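Note to self: the last two entries modelled the partners one at a time, which told us nothing about the interface. This time every component goes in together.
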Amino acid sequence: MRALIFEAFGGPLSVRDLPAPDPATDGVVVEVAASGICRSDWHGWQGHDPDVVLPHVPGHELAGTVAAVGHGVRRWRVGDRVTVPFVNACGRCAQCAAGEHQVCPNQTQPGFTHWGSLAQFVALDAADVNLVALPDELSMSTAATLGCRYATAFRAVVQVAGVRPGEWVAVHGCGGVGLSAVQIAVAAGARVVAVDVAAGALELARRFGAAATVHGDDDVPAAVADLTGGGAHVSLDTLGAALTCTNSVRSLRPRGRHVQVGLLPPAQGRPEVPMERVIALELALLGSHGMAAHAYPELLGLVADGRLRPQELVTREIGLDDAGAALAGMGAEPGITVVTAFG
Ligand SMILES: [Zn+2]
Ligand SMILES: [Zn+2]
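The predicted structure of the combined assembly is written out below.
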């Protein structure tokens, strides 16, 4: 199979012919039709993720067709159109029994714990637990956004933060997951303040319904407080950086909820969290880590109704030969880049 591979952290990203994977007993192999390029892939390439072992094939935001099925799989057949959350849960532990697959301690992640989907084929474990069937009308490139960024934003805004109509929501970082959060929060009836350092990203945030935008180089907490009459009800760090995390917590009004969505690898420094403010204002600090496969029907229903439009997040479709440059240049282009040609 053709696949994007790197042999050193931060080293060259090249497309090579590699052996295609075999399915595990409880797993499948999917022929990849679309695979998004995400900041998490960039972190893996940089060596920020201890799960990544060299040489490595990145990619975890995928949609495709089942090409091979392990003997123990009951629910899936060759030819099924599927996507998968980037957290592949075991289906057998206490967290999984409680429905909290996104924090399964035995999880695998394509593109991190094993080779990923910036390749013609990818192996996925515990297929009966993790695969999500795609409606025929959903395109593969749109479906790829549901494997990580769009679903992660949906869970953060709707299920973790519990955003209510009329609330102010601040979104710090308008990359793929941030813009997804803007669109989802607006659909939930919230008023959104979008924060970024790139004019193109802020323009997209306004197009997706943000009521106001703030440049990330400004005094962000003060600007959010001005715009919202005292601070946001909900604030999300969708970038994952020391400054955006701290700004997010400082952007909240009393009783506000901060949700950490962007990854914060300690190698990039730890954020300073103003705990005195957390106490005095009774703030809630929440984490959000993907979304379990069983939670997808609500999201897919809102997409089918046209109330959520993840297809608008996909601003660029490229071939695998251009994936390395896109990964290395993460953040240079607004919106989500998806690889849709692998041959
Ligand atoms: Zn991702
Ligand atoms: Zn589990």
